[in-house]
Write a structure and sequence with these properties.
This protein is α/β, with parallel strands linked by helices. It has two domains: about 1-130, Response regulator (Rossmann fold, 3-Layer(aba) Sandwich), CATH 3.40.50.2300; about 130-205, Arc Repressor Mutant, subunit A, CATH 1.10.10.10. Helices cover about 45% and strands about 15% of the residues. It is built from ten helices and seven strands. It has helices at about 10-20, 35-45, 60-70, 85-95, 110-120, 125-130, 150-160, 165-175, 180-190, 195-205; strands at about 1-5, 30, 50-55, 80, 100-105, 140, 145-150. The strands form two sheets. It has a five-stranded parallel β-sheet, sandwiched between helices. It has a two-stranded antiparallel ribbon with strand order 6-7. β1 (about 1-5), α1 (about 10-20) and β2 form a beta-alpha-beta unit. The longest helix has 15 residues, at about 180-190. The protein is elongated. The N and C termini lie far apart (about 45 Å).
């Protein structure tokens, strides 16, 4: 397993490497200290299994650097590791195609869980992004009384899901990327406390967020 670790603080890189070695007994960690050296390391390394990149490094503005990395290496799973805990940063980068966003204040076990999730094909979203993230939301109640909140865009994704559409079809219908669809679905699953598309639809019907199966009326 080959992993790119790009961060401009040498002490941080040294501190996290023992943790990263727990991912695989033969993990090879390729280091970079800024965006230019990250691109050079990628070119020299060949195939890389995961890129773990600090958002704010010398060489480029944070979001610009991530956008260029995604454009150059669209097939490499990308996880952002940053001191920034701004919801706007997190949402923007996940929608730009990052498969995870880990804050540097996260415990080691959380970092490992997030990286293993991404390596297995999943998407890691910080819990703070999943709770109460919208003000112009639709409210509902789960069975135990916990409040839920879905944005208008998330409801649109849920409605498309109710029509039996795949992620690719949802993305085309709403003019968004498949990565953005995954972000919204992960948020919906967490808000509804479910783990599958079927469970999400059943919960949404029970809460009145979408029409029940067989209902000929419009989805609301």
């Amino acid at each position: 397993m080959k992993l790119l670790l790009a961060d401009d603080h040498p002490l941080f890189r040294e501190g996290i490497k023992p943790l990263l070695r727990k991912l695989d007994a033969e993990v090879e960690i390729i280091e970079a200290q800024d965006y230019p050296s990250a691109f050079a390391a990628m070119q020299a390394a060949g195939e890389v299994d995961l890129a773990l990149i600090d958002l704010y490094m010398p060489g480029m503005r944070g979001r610009e650097g991530i956008a260029q990395f995604r454009a150059a290496y669209p097939d490499v799973p990308l996880v952002i590791l940053s001191a920034s805990e701004q919801p706007d940063d997190i949402q923007h980068l996940l929608e730009a195609g990052a498969l995870g966003y880990i804050t540097k204040s996260s415990p080691g076990e959380v970092i490992l869980h997030a990286l293993r999730l991404v390596l297995s094909g999943g998407l890691y979203i910080p819990p703070r992004l999943l709770v109460g993230q919208a003000t112009a939301d639709v409210g509902g109640e789960t069975g135990d009384g916990a409040a839920i909140a879905l944005t208008g865009r998330q409801r649109a994704v849920l409605q498309q899901l109710a029509l039996g559409k795949s992620n690719r079809q949802i993305a085309a219908a709403l003019n968004i990327t498949e990565g953005t669809v995954k972000v919204h679905l992960a948020t919906i699953f967490r808000a509804l406390r479910v783990s599958s598309r079927t469970e999400a639809l059943l919960a949404a019907q029970r809460l009145g967020l979408i029409a029940a199966a067989g209902d000929t009326g419009p989805l609301v």
